[in-house]
Design goal:
eight-stranded parallel barrel; alpha/beta; 8 strands; 12 helices; TIM Barrel
């Protein structure tokens, strides 16, 4: 199964079952280098349909303090791009089906070069990449390299996205389209589900791929509320915070499962 096929297959299965996607985000290398792969498996066991794996970066401009600090800790431990790809490779030893999308910034990709990065990512088992500081108007070089390797370039839309740019995103989206539920950084606390819902309906009507909502989803109630008008939800900062001071890989995995399971139940109970 190719990388993009894995994402499409998962969402097709969810759609056929009338279910919404639950996509947790964790920072690779936090709360420890040893914890990342056990946490990924624990999240799947708790009901994750895909995993967004954060690639730590020294200037995470779109992230709030929780994920910023997790990136700082991960970098201090040596969690570079090579480590992240190795985590995916080890995850794939037991899980051949769950999509993994790397979420991060452009610089680590540019350092390797788009073609080399894409080839190495696909070889490790990565399905898609979301680069929060890559404008869609400047993405052609990366899209071509990723297309050649079979790697989805996942794009972002937000409440401030213009109608023209939204149309371009909907026409060219791969894997899924990530809707940022409000204009701000991750982990902030001003989610307006009504406004977000109206925008999600518009995007889903136009997009060629599923549309998932992220930013501001902290618990079962907010996940269920946002999933009404989305194909799935992404939860990040609250999960990262729950893992931050875990003392061992086993404890981190147990915390990940305990955090995510109520969100899975809430999503399944709503549809």
């Amino acid at each position: 199964m190719t990388s993009i096929d894995r994402i499409e297959t998962r969402f097709a299965g969810l759609r056929a079952a009338g279910r919404k996607a639950l996509i947790p985000f964790v920072t690779a290398g936090d709360p420890s280098l040893e914890a990342t792969v056990p946490v990924m498996h624990a999240l799947v066991e708790a009901g994750a349909d895909a995993i967004e794996l954060g690639v730590a970066f020294s200037d995470p401009m779109a992230d709030g303090p929780v994920i910023q600090r997790s990136s700082e800790r991960a970098l201090a431990r040596g969690a570079g791009t090579g480590y992240v790809l190795d985590c995916v490779r080890r995850f794939r030893e037991r899980d051949a089906d769950t999509p993994v999308v790397l979420m991060g910034y452009l610089n680590p990709v540019e350092i390797r070069g788009a073609a080399r990065f894409a080839a190495e990512a696909v070889a490790a088992g990565v399905d898609g990449v979301l680069l929060v500081d890559l404008p869609p108007e400047e993405a052609m070089e990366f899209r071509q390299a990723f297309d050649a390797a079979g790697l989805a370039l996942v794009m972002l839309a937000s409440p401030t996205t213009s109608a023209a740019r939204a149309a371009m995103l909907c026409a060219n989206a791969q894997g899924y389209l990530y809707y940022v539920s409000y204009a701000g950084v991750t982990g902030a606390d001003h989610l307006d589900t009504g406004a977000a819902g109206r925008r999600l309906q518009e995007l889903r009507a136009a997009a060629r791929v599923p549309v998932v909502a992220g930013f501001g989803i902290k618990d079962a109630a907010s996940a269920a509320a946002m999933a009404v008008d989305a194909d799935g939800v992404v939860v990040g900062s609250a999960l990262v915070a729950a893992l931050a001071d875990a003392g061992s890989a086993g404890e981190a995995a147990a915390r990940a499962k305990a955090f995510l399971a109520p969100l899975r139940r809430a999503l399944d109970a709503s549809w």
